[in-house]
Design goal:
With 654 residues, the chain is of the alpha+beta class. The protein folds into five domains: 4-103, 3-Layer(aba) Sandwich (Rossmann fold); 132-201, ATP-grasp fold, A domain (Dna Ligase, domain 1, 2-Layer Sandwich), CATH 3.30.1490.20; 207-449, ATP-grasp fold, B domain (D-amino Acid Aminotransferase, Chain A, domain 1, 2-Layer Sandwich), CATH 3.30.470.20; 457-569, Glycoprotein, Type 4 Pilin; 584-652, Beta Barrel (OB fold (Dihydrolipoamide Acetyltransferase, E2P)). It is 25% helix and 35% strand. Strands 14-13-10-11-12-15-22-20 form an eight-stranded antiparallel beta sheet, with helices on both faces. Helix 4 runs antiparallel to helix 5 and helix 12 runs antiparallel to helix 13 (420-426).
């Protein structure tokens, strides 16, 4: 068995690997960048070594530094986690040359599947069905355009070296091909150092079903059921479940056996995932193979009762697989929701900030949370904005989804925007609960997944004002030190200016005989309540409501039925504006100006792409909200911008 393991990763997956390694008695080594000096994974390891500056290229992608640390600390194995160098054949080879065990497949297997075009050729030879498309070596614009026209639209552009939704674009017509190809190539070059593309016919109603495979160095291979990962945004998975609902036993077996053939065709060893597109008529097509542990591996662990990281470590040490295919048993259903820092109301843009309030749901043998952060940590701009993975297991799918809804309702985060409210709506959406899944699910059901808030603006403002008032010291405790509206022999009164949904509102809260009266614009709300810790029980206009509250500095967060309402106390008329302010455009997130598409003086049409902002290795086009002329440009390509910075100014047409 191995003795000392270096985990060449960060965040949630580093914590996950360290947990199993320590349980098995291995000595553990963490690495960290400047941004992660105080991160949770650093505290979990027996020792931690500094890698370099915050950017991944200078730290977690620095192969030489990682190998130097592994040699200096006396490690005999390296676990790459997922992302970063986990599918880098050169790094696996470097580990081997340094006498280190790479906890993953052989370099040749990584190389074979890392080039998605070459992988398709291999899979065709192994009898695995392929999606129609082009995966040739010639990469001229003319050849790709010709192949796209021959393949037909809609079309999916995919980076040959890609993964995680990066370097991917859907093209609906020939008119959009040039812009999509240029953007996909830029993103692929930035993320993987390789801008080669392959083309696939896009199957919009297909499901994304993947099979977990495991192989050892003794020629054994098996599959551990499959997972459905169809619910995605930006071509990235957001919710996964196992087993995939609605598959017949015949399809399940055929898909699993094809996945094992795919792995054994390249001399695989360790954990891997073979991804398929599955159509309503029962056909499945090979997409790609991920030669690493997947983000969503916990759902497989929950239905099999196995520790896949332990299996990785044992097979990397040369041990045979502990089970045969016949011995693999499944129980119940598991579903995983990825908790991201992102703004779901603005096309899932990545978010950053401080986790001022962090209250996970109660954990049990049915509810599991894999995370790499703690309260007070920063979600920065350098890495993937994943906060945690919430996994729920139960005896069937219906019970698991009900449990996930409850857990999401109990999960409270304040300080950075998250997708918790969206996930709560998603797991209760009727079509989703019925198993009507495909990769365009979010787009198709947008009207039910992005509803108006369940509370009126006046109700939210009244409750926030009451929560703030109840959180203040009582006048009897410090009558002359308090900064509230309390006055001797007068009814308590609070005059607040609260920013909500980018508007500033005046709220007057006055004590009444039965509690409080909140005046919001021309409306009055009668309410009473009691704040105990973060729980607020109140009566609002005759209705009993229970919710939770978190406050930090001038921020007030209300948590109600899985949704979060964000408010801020302000002292003047300045409102937040991450949207368009007058004739200017501001940055919706911190990032890098990847490309300027216009110059000062240019005439632009409504919806035209003006510049491209890169954040967390994803590109986000900034488009004109109206027709007009570019009056001023405040940044150049390559400049770093902060959230809210004015990028350029438009002079609208009369």
């Amino acid at each position: 068995m191995l003795t000392k393991l270096l985990v060449a990763n960060r965040g949630e997956i580093a914590c996950r690997v360290l947990s199993t390694a320590r349980r098995l008695g291995l000595q553990t080594v963490a690495v960290y960048s400047d941004a992660d000096r105080h991160a949770r994974h650093v505290t979990l390891a027996d020792e931690a070594w500094h890698l370099g500056p915050a950017p991944a290229a200078d730290s977690y992608l620095n192969q030489a530094a990682l190998l130097d640390i592994a040699g200096s600390c006396g490690a005999d194995a390296v676990h790459p986690g997922y992302g970063f160098l986990s599918e880098h054949a050169g790094f696996a080879q470097g580990c081997a040359e340094a006498g280190l065990v790479f906890v993953g497949p052989p370099p040749a297997a990584i190389a074979a599947m890392g080039d998605k075009a070459a992988a398709k050729t291999l899979m065709a030879g192994a009898g695995v069905p392929l999606v129609p498309g082009y995966h040739g070596e010639e990469q001229s614009h003319e050849r790709l355009q010709r192949e796209a026209d021959d393949c037909g639209y809609p079309l999916l552009l995919k980076a040959v070296a890609g993964g995680g939704g990066k370097g991917m674009r859907i093209v609906h017509s020939p008119a959009g091909f040039d812009e999509a190809l240029a953007a996909a190539r830029r993103e692929a070059k930035s993320s993987f150092g390789n801008d080669a593309m392959l083309l696939e016919h896009y199957l919009p109603e297909a499901r994304h079903v993947e099979v977990q495979v495991f192989c050892d160095s003794h020629g054994n291979g098996l599959y551990l059921s499959e997972r459905d990962c169809s619910v995605q945004r930006r071509h990235q998975k957001i919710l996964e479940e196992a087993p995939a609902p609605g598959l017949t036993s015949a399809i399940r077996s055929a898909m699993g056996e094809a996945a094992v053939r795919a792995a054994q065709a390249i001399g695989y060893c360790g954990a891997g995932t073979v991804e398929f597109l599955y159509t309503a008529d029962g056909h499945f097509f090979f997409m790609e193979m991920n030669t690493r542990l997947q983000v969503e591996h916990p759902v497989t662990e929950m239905i099999t009762g196995l520790d896949l990281v332990e299996w990785q470590l044992r097979t990397a040490a040369g041990q045979p697989l502990p089970l045969t295919q016949e011995q693999v048993t499944l129980r119940g259903h598991a579903v995983e929701a990825r908790i991201y820092a992102e703004d779901t109301g603005h096309d899932f843009l990545p978010a950053s900030g401080t986790l001022y309030a962090l209250h996970p749901p109660p954990l049990s043998n049915k509810v599991r949370l894999d995370t790499g952060v703690r309260q007070g940590d920063q979600v920065g701009i350098y890495y993937d904005p994943l906060i945690a993975k919430l996994i729920v297991h139960d005896h069937n799918r219906e019970a698991a989804l009900a449990g996930l809804a409850r857990a999401l309702e109990q999960y409270r985060i304040g300080g950075v925007k998250t997708n918790i409210g969206f996930l709560h709506r998603l797991c209760q959406q009727p079509a989703f609960r019925a198993g009507e899944l495909h990769t365009r699910f979010i787009e198709q059901h947008r009207h039910s997944l992005f509803p108006a808030p369940g509370l009126s603006t006046g109700e939210v403002l009244a409750m926030a004002a009451l929560a703030y008032a109840l959180s203040l010291p009582k006048p009897g405790d410090a009558p002359f030190a308090t900064s509230t509206g309390w006055r001797l022999n007068q009814a308590a009164e609070y005059r607040l200016r609260l920013e909500y949904l980018n508007d500033v509102h005046e709220v007057n809260l006055t004590a009444s005989a039965n509690g409080w009266r909140a005046q919001v614009s021309e409306q009055e709300h009668e309410l009473s309540g009691e704040l105990s810790g973060e729980g607020l029980q109140l009566n609002l206009n005759g209705d009993r409501i229970g919710l939770h509250v978190a406050l930090h500095d001038k921020h007030i967060w209300l948590f109600y039925r899985g949704e979060r309402f964000d408010l801020r106390r302000v002292a003047d008329d300045t409102g937040a504006g991450h949207a368009i302010a007058g004739d200017s455009l501001t940055a919706p997130m911190p990032g890098l100006v990847a490309e300027l598409k216009v110059a000062e003086g240019d005439e632009v049409a409504e919806g035209q792409s003006l510049l491209v902002l890169e954040a967390m290795k994803m590109e986000h086009p900034i488009r004109a909200p109206m027709a007009g002329r570019v009056a001023e440009i405040h940044f150049r390509a390559g400049d770093q911008v902060n959230e809210g910075d004015e990028l350029l100014r438009l002079k609208p047409h009369d």
